[in-house]
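Follow-up to my post from last week.
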Amino acid sequence: MKLDPGSEFGRIERLRAAFAADAPGVVVGIGDDAALLDPGAGPLLVWTVDEQVQNTHFDLGWLTLDDVAYRGYMAAASDLAAMGASPWTALASWVIPSSFDEAAFDALARGAAQAAAEVGAPIVGGNLAKGERLSLGTTLLGRTTRPLRRDGAKAGDLLMVAGPLGLAALGLRALQVGEFAKELEPALAAWRRPRARMGEGKLAGAVASAAIDISDGLGQDLAHLAQASGVQLVVEEAALRAHGGEDLARGAQRLGLEAMDLALAGGEDYALVVTHGAGLPGFTVLGHVRECRSVEDPSVILRSPTGQERPAPTGFDHFYQRPRSTARKVSSTP
Amino acid sequence: MKLDPGSEFGRIERLRAAFAADAPGVVVGIGDDAALLDPGAGPLLVWTVDEQVQNTHFDLGWLTLDDVAYRGYMAAASDLAAMGASPWTALASWVIPSSFDEAAFDALARGAAQAAAEVGAPIVGGNLAKGERLSLGTTLLGRTTRPLRRDGAKAGDLLMVAGPLGLAALGLRALQVGEFAKELEPALAAWRRPRARMGEGKLAGAVASAAIDISDGLGQDLAHLAQASGVQLVVEEAALRAHGGEDLARGAQRLGLEAMDLALAGGEDYALVVTHGAGLPGFTVLGHVRECRSVEDPSVILRSPTGQERPAPTGFDHFYQRPRSTARKVSSTP
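User reply:
Got it. Predicted complex:
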């Protein structure tokens, strides 16, 4: 059996079995956006790692080295936002081809330092190794007294999002087909410089019932949240379309794509979805949480302006290929 | 300027400048074997990351996939031992070629799980990504109330080691030249299955004045410790030779190498060197610490049985090539 998204979730389960161990202070192990540790006193620790691999997650022709390091750091930081954690510190583990000169190295350092400064978690160590392909690992520690999980959404809660949906996927698609029209610039910027939603995560961390960051696509990640919480999530198409706005609509039109498809399937914006009983500043309400009447119920529903309901698509391969589809968090719940 | 050991230390300094930031609770950042964090209550956290990269640190023809994952974990764990920390938990960030089937994946999981069980720090999460070359990142958290540093060695202390010196380097050399005679078996095992000195690190952590793990070679790593502490380290040749024992002597002879060269330059045994006023169980005394009379003094001295002294070699490239020479801790002090 070869590696594919389907088998990877199986691999996560096999790792969970292989690594099964009760260690003192492990609150959440393999099974959420990040590991959650209790040091015994003070806030809980939230711990995550992400890896950006050349020719898997990016092509060096598509972005600057500053961008590569910036987005690598942000991908890891987004997991902390999804747990409602305050970022603390980071380690960088970089595999760098011999062909990279000092200017290239400095560009990586600059991009990572900028992301670290924006997120507020300085890089305090790491590892440098040589390799045939560029690969940037970022591991982050955050702290929280009230961790957000995927399993707390309750019927009656509002479903809200902070950050763009589908814009980065549109930018990636533009890069893949080599289309750089002016109306695609916001999309290109969204893919090259995604921003983890740290402030919104902290705000939601104090009150929200559940959260997840959108790294695999709204449809798929909402399904994870719905399944973990045992609820059904209803997304209003009109709200989703309005949230996408002109940048998504015009860019999608330019490439002959559907804005709604991008909004449902695009993941690398690292938007933050939370559920809570009332609106929150910085978040757009997309829909609401309702009871799941039977296990056969679809977990995520799209509702049209006329009230018609249909299951939300959870895949993306039907309309665009993206390298990110080959990467999975060990901590993801299938 | 291309990547080489010389330029890499320069890179570490440049990272230190690029990442310079005072974060609350950062006791040690870039500049030792691992980062040291103060959560505000309870023990300090010791945090490290290591990366093992195919064709840089290992050749897939030289060891099983179990071994690759085992030694990757141990390389990271050794940094905790060097800080005298108790291992707590780990994250695994794996880049895996598409050609790897499920049996290959399970072998990696098995090797990592075995190392984690031996070290006592379970893997509680991580990241799986696809890539062209196998690359295994391990990040570990440990805890300690009395961290060992490189800068605490005092004149009059004994210089002691736990674990083999040069045996893994001999094993790597045997693999490089394709020589598998019976007298090389201990060396092959030492390279394929190094053991981080967790127990010895914890023991020393309670009392020792300084420590370092030997990842780049005894001569080079002792120089780091001597320079950080502002002392001179005297190594007795006879003690070093006796410590190497028959396994090193016979294996070296088989390959036409000098046991002493291997003991001074070999790093991947992950032996633990500490300084302390008295002997410690599990450690072999190699020499002692004395005052550094002037800045021109060599930092590490080899003393012959007749009392003749000479500076210890700090390099290794003169007698054998090893892929590890291309990797450096960001946290290493030059």
